[in-house]
Fold this sequence. Notes:
One of its GO terms (molecular function) is 2,3,4,5-tetrahydropyridine-2,6-dicarboxylate N-succinyltransferase activity. The protein is of the alpha/beta class.
Amino acid sequence: MTVGTEEQVTDGVDEVRTMDGERRVGTVEQVEELLADLEAGTVRAATRGEDGSWSAHAWVKEGILAAFRLSDTVEMDWPGGAVDRSLVPARTFGTADGVRVVPGGTSVRRGAHVAAGVVVMPPSYVNVGAYVGAGTMVDSHVLVGSCAQVGERVHLSTAVQLGGVLEPVGARPVVVEDDVFVGAQCGLYEGVVVRSRAVLAPGVVLTAGTTVYDLVEEREWRGEVPEGAVVVPGSRPARGDYADVLGLSLYAPVIVKYRDAGTDAATVLEGALR
């Protein structure tokens, strides 16, 4: 039946599309259409609003979850053998895609968008629902988790981890905006947003609850890194007599400067770490 503001559109399948454009994905055919749209980049698991805020699209995540629910577990043709869900196998690329996937154990899963000009070094993994923008470098041992959003001309250095999220469906995924440099072994989790042109030094770990201490603006950030910020790992003293006795300190990422318009990310990072 059709409920409220929703309308039935095709083939006797109820609640396929809502009046605001959201789709109901409940059949294999609808799952295939959604995965194709995600790969093309015409549909995304999260988008940026005019005010700069990022919002997850629950219906997309629900559709991805439907892909797993409607799949069979099958053997797949993969070096060494593989067993996975039938509707979300590894993607294949050709020269027409304009993507370089260097041999050596990399896998990009069905339903992930990888734009022209992206280079993926082995071994790396890009999960379903993820978006990787044009000109981005995905270096060795990088994980781009489910539904993570990566902009254009981003550098994800060796062993970077971008956490994924499918449930709860309303949870915002990790977002890395355009022209960001993410240093080696950084970890971004729990829907943290790294704004455009930011630079993260190697080893920076951020979650939605991590406090980032801004030494330039003399303020604190939580859940996001501001545009152009240069973040390095830091520490602050732990509280309490026991901590004082042992000289304990807590991890505390610190903004030490902001990128100038003409400053190369690698140059500004080298200067910040000196």
